[in-house]
Amino acid sequence: MSIDLDYEFASKEESFHTIVIGGGQAGLATGYFLAQHGENFIILDKNMRSGDAWRSRWESLRLFTPSQIDNLPGMRFSKSKNYFPSKDEVADYLEEYAQHFNLPIRHNIKVKSLIRKDQGYQITADAARFSARNVIIAAGPYHLPFIPDFAKQLDSDIFQLHSSTYCNPKQIPVDSVLVVGAGNSGAEIALELAGAGKKVWLSGRDVGRIPINSSLGKLFDGRLAWWFMTHVLTVDTPIGRKMQATMVHQGAPLGHAERGEIAAAGVTLTPRMSGVNSSKPQLEGGQTLAVEGVIWATGYQPDYRWIDLPVFDQRGYPMHSRGIVQGAPGLYFIGLLFQTGLSSSLLGGVGKDAAYITTQVLRNRN
Predict the structure, then answer these.
(1) Are 77 and 85 in contact (CB under 8 A)?
(2) Cβ-count burial of 94 within 10 angstroms (0-12 exposed, 13-18 middle, 19+ buried)?
(3) Can you say whether residue 74 is alpha, beta or left, with left for phi > 0 and alpha for psi between -120 and 50 degrees?
(4) Coil, helix or strand for 299?
(5) Which residues contact 346 (CB under 8 A, 6 or more apart)?
(6) Rounded CA separation 344/243 (Å)
(7) Residues 6 or more apart from 197 whose CB is under 8 A from it?
(8) Which of 44-58, 72-86, 96-110, 198-212 has the least mean pLDDT?
(9) Which of 19, 35, 204, 229 has a Cα at 20 to 30 A from 182?
(10) Residue 307 gets which letter from DSSP?
(11) What is the pLDDT of residues 178-231, one digit of tens each?
(12) 67 near 81, Cβ under 8 Å?
């Protein structure tokens, strides 16, 4: 079993050589490598259980990568080949992973602040304090749900919901819905609502499609496409750097259905929503839509306000090179969107970055 060290916090400061903040897939993969090398470390996680971040997502969510390439380091995903795991199966896999490797996780700890102290860092979490030579931030790339300011101008009778709190179609009390944001979440939610008999519009640019779920991508059980994602679509190649820049502004490519399939399912594809006109959603080009509801699949904003260090750009994103923060020795990030490549924030891809970050930490051991 994992070392679940929930306890009544002592007032004294606890010291470790390395502290990982975040116990999701990125934090667990990093913990695996740290444990393999006998590192003195601990993982701090705000959730009750390992995998809870996945359990809280919408009910029908499934990975767009098959189980054979959804493995964290050292343990295979125990599902049949070409099976696409549900979000709860992913959550259970993460919990089993933490238990199998007996990773030192402390749950129910929400970090309040991180500051530089002496030759390392000090972490404050409610009544607990920790210090470490190295800190690896594995808190994920998705923090504050983003809704544009003009949403407040919509008619008060229009039902509004951010995709982060969407569960299933029964939650939507109206019949006509505009889904704003044509990335993965928006596309999947639009398809599900259309399948439930609602009239749906999907607003946003074509973000492309990850090849692994296409007919070509399924060749060799998807491993050829996965190799392309992990070795070609990276920060080391021109095509990878171009995709990285695009994803920052437009979101990740679709993982399941392409836009033609979405339209064929009865979803009306529209340009981006540009604002509000007469209390109704207005699209680029001037068209207004008389809908009864709007679901904002508009992504998230970073929230690193708890880190009191000058390591962020004007948009609030970490300034790093492959997860290493310049000017802050011993500070690292893991699990960021396109950290080193398209697969960096995916279940089966984060291990590669975790191994690299661990190597950097071990160099700082003495």
Answers:
(1) yes
(2) buried
(3) left
(4) coil
(5) 65
(6) 13
(7) none
(8) 198-212
(9) 229
(10) B
(11) 999 998 899 999 999 999 999 999 999 888 777 665 555 555 677 788 888 888
(12) yes
**Helix crossing, 87-100 with 25-36: angle to 10°?**
20
> HSE-up of 237 (CA within 13 Å, CB side)?
13
Return the closest-CA partner of residue 258 out of 209, 324, 318: 209
Alpha carbons within 13 angstroms on the beta-carbon side of residue 134 total 28
Q: Yes or no: say if 191 and 265 are a contact pair by the CB < 8 Å rule.
A: yes
What's the one-letter identity of residue 175? D
Place of tokens 């404050």: 124
Asked if residue 316 lies in contact with residue 302, where contact means CB atoms within 8 angstroms, the answer is yes
Among 366, 363, 344, smallest CA distance to 29 is for 344
What is the pLDDT of the chain when averaged over all its residues? 90
The position carrying tokens 């502290």 is 19
Counting Cβ atoms within 10 Å, is residue 239 exposed (0-12), middle (13-18) or buried (19+)? exposed
DSSP letters for 245-296? HHHHHH-PPBSS--HHHHHHTTPEEE--EEEEETTEEEETTS-B---SEEEE
Q: 235, 242 in Cβ contact below 8 A?
A: no
Pull the structure tokens for residue 14: 């606890």
Q: What whole-number distance in Å separates Cα of residue 144 and Cα of residue 162?
A: 11
Bridge partners, residue 43, by sequence: 20, 105
pLDDT in tens, 268-281: 999 999 999 999 99
Query: What is the three-class DSSP state of 25?
Result: helix
266: left (phi over 0), alpha (psi -120 to 50) or beta: left
> C-alpha 46: how far from its chain's center?
16
Distances (CA, A) of 244 to 76, 83, 130, 141, 241: 28, 28, 35, 14, 5
